[in-house]
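[Automated response] Your request has been received and processed.

Submitted sequence:
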Amino acid sequence: MRLSVDNLSHVFNGGADRHALEQISFTVEDGQFVALLGPSGCGKSTLLRLCANLLQPSGGRIEIEGKSPVEVARRRQIAWLAQSPALLPWLTAAQNVELACRFHNLDREPRLLPQHALDMVGLADAAGVYPAALSGGMQQRLALARLLTQEAALWLMDEPFAALDELTRERLTVELADIWGRLRPTVLWVTHNIYEALRLADRVLVFSPAPGRIVADINVNLPRPRVESDPAYQQLLKTLRAALQGQPVQILEWAVSC
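Generated structure:
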């Protein structure tokens, strides 16, 4: 699912206006995994909400396969995964996934059944367990299984692993990369973690402090799985750090090409 953002701006009104985004333009091709990297408050999550039709932009345009976000959301082609798994505590793991599957497949037979989704995220043996009995990492796996049953072509993912310990985060990053490689949805992934961005993404869009502007668009032309000791990986790591520190784009382009 191709996503196109053209000259997008957003201002939050309320007393003193807060400019969240300013003149953002980029395109994400079908099946591409794009990470959004930048400081807190730079508008990354706001951009996801605009794409999900949860907010209306102050200016500019978003098109998803040539349609507005409201049209695509109405067709249930957008899936969301946030930091909080937002599970229903009175339902078992399987029931949480089944509810999402029913809701998002009201007028069609689901291709991916809830039990298969649980299998894909390694929770086959926890189907009858309630969320309170699951670890934080298992709860996020369950939220991911719920997302999978929606069979959406566009995944909007707002730091879903940020609250997890480092070991769990590393493991889930590897597993998500494998699932994405099999299904190939279009993904926008918000993160503050440079390593996470490089492990997962085809491209990294680096944002300035608020009002958020794109200061670098960096291709990650590395084979998967990514190896941190690879000199090309290390060069991209330096490039991303330089971009976050506000170094000129010209320097970044030179660094990526070397």
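Summary generated for your ticket: The two ends are 32 Å apart (CA to CA). The chain has nine helices and nine strands.
If you did not submit this request, please reply to this message.
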